[in-house]
Amino acid sequence: MTHEPDAATADATRFWDERYVSRRTEHGRMWSGRVNAAVAQQVSELVPGTALELGSGEGADALWLAARGWDVTALDISSIALEVGAGEAAKAGLSERIEWVQTDLTTWRPSAQYDLVTSAFLHSPVDFPREAILRRAVSAVAPGGRLLVIGHGGFPPMSEHVHDVEIPTFPSPEEVLTSLDLPDGWLVETNASMERTTKWRGEEDVVLVDTVLRVRRVD
Ligand SMILES: C[S@@+](CC[C@H](N)C(=O)[O-])C[C@H]1O[C@@H](n2cnc3c(N)ncnc32)[C@H](O)[C@@H]1O
Q1: Dmax over Cα atoms in the chain, in whole Å?
Q2: I need a surface site. Which of 34, 58, 61, 138 has the fewest CB within 10 A?
Q3: How confident is the model over 36-77, as pLDDT tens digits?
């Protein structure tokens, strides 16, 4: 039996699918195709295990994780983005290591626990309960595992965010930490804002600020 998505899910799916289609038509891809710098920095030192990625997009982080031995479950609302990721995984011989799951995180509830739960730039201009999703993600972390939350410190210069529905603010890592409302038995390993220089759309150098929070469930 198939279920019709509710109106909010249908709207968010349409918004993101259309963004992926239009940007891929215009520029060949939506994102850079490279692992996020903060993900590489925060995860390189960890022993591979199971990983859950929230809002994987075209899967650059999932592919990077899988290539390092992680078994990844990649969740995103856009089947267009997930298909791109699955295609890249097939080309790289990593299909066995990544499960691509189309889901609306707004209604998602964790059904398993992972050594790493990661989200990079999980922001959306469509009505999006990010804090509640990240709080739920806490319960998807296995004992000894970690939650990694990477976000924008502000709008990238020259970004083309949609002005009538723009994201009101980007929280600091401290605010993300507070909103997670972690129970006892968690350790904060990274709580920082980090600058990085990147080529904007492959052209001009821009300095971006990433917020990085990494917490570990110690028992
Ligand atoms: C800013 S992009 C970041 C993508 C990827 N993590 C990266 O760093 O390239 C946000 C992603 O969240 C996904 N997303 C937005 N709303 C969602 C929702 N309600 N449920 C699941 N994924 C969602 C979008 O489709 C998009 O791929």
Answers
A1: 50
A2: 34
A3: 999 999 999 999 999 999 999 999 999 999 999 999 999 999
Distance (angstroms) between ligand 1 centre and the Cα of 125 equals 10
The verdict on residue 120 lying in a domain is yes
> Which tokens belong to 148?
């990694």
If one counts the domains in the chain, the total is 1
How far is ligand 1, taken at its centre, from the CA of residue 79, in Å? 11
Give the distance (Å) from ligand 1 centre to CA of residue 122. Answer: 5
Domain containing residue 158: 7-217
Residue-wise pLDDT for 101-148, tens only, equals 999 999 999 999 999 999 999 999 888 999 999 999 999 999 999 999
For residue 210, being part of any structural domain is answered with yes
Nearest-angstrom CA–CA distance, 6 and 171? 28
Pairing of strands 98-102, 71-76: parallel
150 CA closest ligand 1 atom index: 8
- From the list 50, 18, 23, 41, the residue with the least C-alpha distance to 145 is 50
From the CA of 128, give the closest atom in ligand 1: 19
Q: By C-alpha distance, which of 151, 143, 150, 122 is closest to 216?
A: 143
Q: Is residue 141 part of a domain?
A: yes
Q: Judge whether 159 lies within some domain.
A: yes
Q: Hey, what are 192's tokens?
A: 């920082």
